[in-house]
Amino acid sequence: MSQVTMAAEKPTTLEECLALPLNESELIEVTEKAKDWAIMHGAAMRSKTNFSPDSLNFAPFLLTPSSFPRKEFEKAVNLQTIINRLMHNVAHDEEFLTTTLAETIKVDEFTANLFNIYKKVLASGFGQALSLGILRSDYLAHIYADNAIKQVEINTIASSFGGISTHMLPLQSFVLSELEHADKLKNMPDNQALAGICGGMVRAWEIYNNPKAVIMFIVEDVTYNICDQRFHEFYIREKYPHIKVIRKTLTEVHDTGKLGLGKELIIGDLEVAVIYFRAGYEPDHYHSHNEWDARYLMESSTAIKCPSIHYHLAGTKKVQQALAQPEMLERFISDPDEIKMIGKIFTGLYSLDDNDAGHKNYEMALKEPERFVLKPQREGGGNNVYGLDIPDVLKKMSRVERSAWILMDLIKPPISKGYMIRPGGSMPPPLVEVVSELGIFGVVIGDVDNIICNYQAGHMLRTKVATANEGGVAAGLGALDSPYLVD
């Protein structure tokens, strides 16, 4: 049976962790408590619509944890160190990155700018051979594969929500206890994402081996997702008080940064050991040539970057699509069992390059658009085109422009029910059908020849209304959550 026919059938559902709906008065009372808990524990964000640097809203969240298949969660956790190694090897394969992105950089100015910096740094020799990867591999369970996980994407830059996600487990544990369901807590996996991610930065700082050097966060001009970022900074300051953390925009790096005699990155009068990018992943972060110059300055330096420019390029959708081709994994992974395990998580990914295969895929997208998602080379949510909207968008592009995009099979996740709690949302909150996306964090440090640190670093769950296409929390379409593991 084709996926299209199956798509017309009702998707399977996962049973919720407790019987819903809740009694209305109980629901209102526990929701009010949960909102206050979220704000008081920093599971919060600044409002985009009513911005003030002096106030916070709680981040959108699910009142109770959403169900996720236990064996698939465990599979994702166990795969992460292999994925870390895969992405590390991809980032260090100059020939692969160059050929894979050749068509894309002709039409995608942003990716081309990143690639030009990569080529310039390659030509003059990397100031720092080591890279720090803080990755997040995102998955949906797929009902047409017996709820087996399929990879949605891999994030190599600004892999966010490790900080706030760590608070989802205690928040929802509090709610379940208030509802007298504390017996359910044993099915909620522990989550040490904040400690795991910060541990990677600290390890890189130690490897750099200058006790006076600092960790620098590259941030947007205005940071809405402030708590998530500050949790990392404050955790490092609390646990490792001897390590100073500074925050700078790309513009500030341009204005105050320079290279020392040994290519050290000096910001003001501070030497930088580690650069953690929480900005720089979208065109809007680069207001002029100055910001691109700042990126090049950092890439040329001895500071350990998270991500380095080649890691950033390895996270593009085009690379993801190329990796899903048969036999391609053999280039990066030697163990046949690992190749098989990784191969199983890939869904169909198709090139739209200006060649025979690309034209064939273009025709396929026009014929059966409901099977697909159209994706550009961008992070941050809100950029994809879905289903029946695809033909109009594709027809407006030239053959060459299409090569900046990839086509991906639409993954159909199982549906469950829950209460999505949003700032300004109605009370009592309505019970809605939702789907969840699991993100697994990974940390990897190494150079072209060796990996010196590689571990899985916690998880996050984002849940969105089942009818919504996009799922970014920062983009305002999803909500934070944690998994309730079901067999």
Give an overview of the whole structure.
The chain is α+β, with helices and mostly antiparallel strands and 487 residues long. Helix content is 37%, strand content 23%. It has 18 helices and 21 strands. β7, α10 and β8 (245-248) form a beta-alpha-beta unit. It is globular, with a radius of gyration of 22 Å. It starts with a helix and ends with a strand.
Number of helices: 18
As residue ranges, the low-confidence spans are 1-8
**Structure class:** alpha+beta
Total count of strands: 21
Binned strand content: 15-25%
Biggest β-sheet description: 7 strands, antiparallel
Distance between the termini: 27 Å
Q: Bin the helical content.
A: 25-40%
Cα shape: globular
Overall mean confidence score, pLDDT: 92
- Rounded to an integer in angstroms, the radius of gyration calculated over CA atoms is 22 Å
Structural features:
single chain; alpha+beta; six-stranded mixed beta sheet; 18 helices; 37% helix; 23% strand; globular; disordered N terminus
Summarize the structure.
The chain has 487 residues and is α+β, with helices and mostly antiparallel strands.
SSE order and pairing:
Layout: H1 3-7, H2 24-40, E1 44-45, E2 57-58, E3 61-62, E4 66-69, H3 70-91, H4 94-101, H5 104-107, H6 109-124, E5 131-142, E6 148-155, H7 162-165, H8 168-178, H9 193-208, E7 214-218, H10 226-239, E8 245-248, H11 250-256, E9 257-259, E10 265-267, E11 270-277, H12 289-300, E12 304-306, H13 309-314, H14 317-323, H15 336-345, E13 349-351, H16 356-367, E14 372-375, E15 385-386, H17 390-395, H18 399-402, E16 406-409, E17 416-421, E18 431-446, E19 451-465, E20 479-481, E21 483-486
Parallel strand pairs: 4-21, 7-8, 7-11, 11-12
Antiparallel strand pairs: 1-2, 3-17, 5-6, 5-18, 9-10, 10-11, 13-16, 14-15, 14-16, 17-18, 18-19, 19-20
Helix pairs in contact: 2-8, 6-12, 9-10, 11-12
